Amino acid sequence: MDSLIAEPGSDTTFIPIDTSIIRNTDSTLFHSIRFDESNIYTESQIHVENGQYWRANDYIGRPIDLGYTFQAPANDTMKARPFVILLHEGAFLFGSRKNEEGKARLLARKGYATATIDYRIGFNGGREGFACESNSRELYQAIYRGVQDIYVALRYFMDNSVKFGIDPRNVVIGGSSAGGIAASAFLYMDEADFEKLSPGIVKTLGRLDTYPNHTGFKIRALLTSLGFAIIQSDYITSNNAIPTVFFQRTGDDVLAYEKGKLFFCNDYFFTEGAKNTSTRLETLHKPYELNYEPKAGHQLSYNEDYVVNRYAKFVNRIWGGDRRQIVNENYNNIRNKILN
Question: 20 to 30 Å CA-CA from 37: which of 16, 140, 163, 199?
């Protein structure tokens, strides 16, 4: 069954890109009082808007509405703001965009435009609290649907970039746990990669990027927390590597810190975590920040303010051309290498 049943935002009139709008340079963003660790807007100064970006079939063919929550400074004089889109955790079985709204609000208070989105969850054999009663094919399809949803959401926001006051050239993607898996697959996997792992998946679920002729975008950074996983770190090359922030425990018992079976389920495929992926970026001489806790368990001790401050500081360095490879154990820096 075709997974697509409606165009993105089919009930919304797309606003054409206004080429007269001033697009900020990286240098301008770097030297701005915005976008760093300070919260320069109060919560009452943040505009919040809820909407729907797509309607699609879930894993058993039911049509569901996929929503978003957009947050950004209200009455902003900056008309083309950096845009951060965040995906929630939940093992592809539970959770919603509300899980990431705290981070999004903090980023909006720093001057960013942000959106948290719902993506399709659920797979045959999986249930909240125990994800191991399925098979790899079902998990590949769950990830694939998540990537499709990311593409549609980004096309929706980019097509409406004037309305939302965002700059398609300055997009940051973030994800927690399963959301980070979907984000890494979005960045580093194509249909051929999925077909190699799960033959017939494209015919079953449709194209990854359903609307490639819609407005483009440029991803500047990947921000992850609550663990990280990529199916294969060698999907990352010198040509496609994205500067990345990681937050993970070395004894993560859901997503392996180095390499292990997804969700530690014997019948699932292997994934690689923050350690292996940061090592891959290190080998490729690409910027990253690895924050790890030498503890057991999936949940982290860092609070949202600290995580978001590290996010903002990292993106700000990218704009400033300050390319570093940073490793922090708990809150203590143990590596800070400046790249040429």
Answer: 163
Task: Please classify residue 47 by burial: count the beta carbons closer than 10 Å to its beta carbon, then call 0-12 exposed, 13-18 middle and 19+ buried.
Answer: middle
Distance of CA 4 to the CA centre of its chain: 22
The answer, as to whether pTM is greater than 0.85, is yes
Residue reference for tokens 């075709």: 2
**Residue 37, class by beta-carbon neighbours within 10 Å (0-12 exposed, 13-18 middle, 19+ buried)?**
middle
Nearest to 197 by CA among 147, 127, 255: 147
Closest by CA position to 167, among listed 18, 49, 333, 283: 18
Cα torsion at 10, 174, 315, 22 (round to 10°)? 0
Task: Write the pLDDT tens digit of every residue in 245-268.
Answer: 999 999 999 999 999 999 999 999
CA distances from 76 to 71, 73, 313 (A): 12, 6, 22
Tell which residue, 169, 176, 8, has the closest CA to residue 101: 176
- Cβ atoms of 214 and 261 within 8 Å: the answer is no
pLDDT in tens, 302-332: 999 999 999 999 999 999 999 999 999 999 9
Residue 18, SS3?
A: coil
Instruction: Please state, in angstroms and rounded to a whole number, the distance separating the CA atoms of residues 113 and 136.
Output: 36
Sign of the dihedral through C-alpha 263, 267, 273, 277:
negative
Angular region, 217: left φ>0, alpha ψ -120 to 50, beta rest: beta
Whole-number pLDDT of residue 130: 82
The sign of the torsion formed by the CA atoms of 119, 123, 126, 132 equals negative
Give dist(CA 52, CA 157) in Å, integer.
Answer: 11
Question: Is the separation of the CB atoms in 318 and 221 below 8 Å?
Answer: yes
- Structural contact between residues 120 and 58, judged by C-beta atoms closer than 8 angstroms: yes
CB contact at 8 A, 55 and 64? yes
Residue pair 104/309 in contact by the 8 Å Cβ criterion: no
Please tell me whether residue 152 adopts helix, strand or coil conformation.
Answer: helix
Q: Please count the other Cβ atoms lying within 10 Å of the Cβ belonging to residue 303.
A: 10
In angstroms, the Cα distances linking 23 to 41, 73, 110, 145 are 22, 17, 18, 32
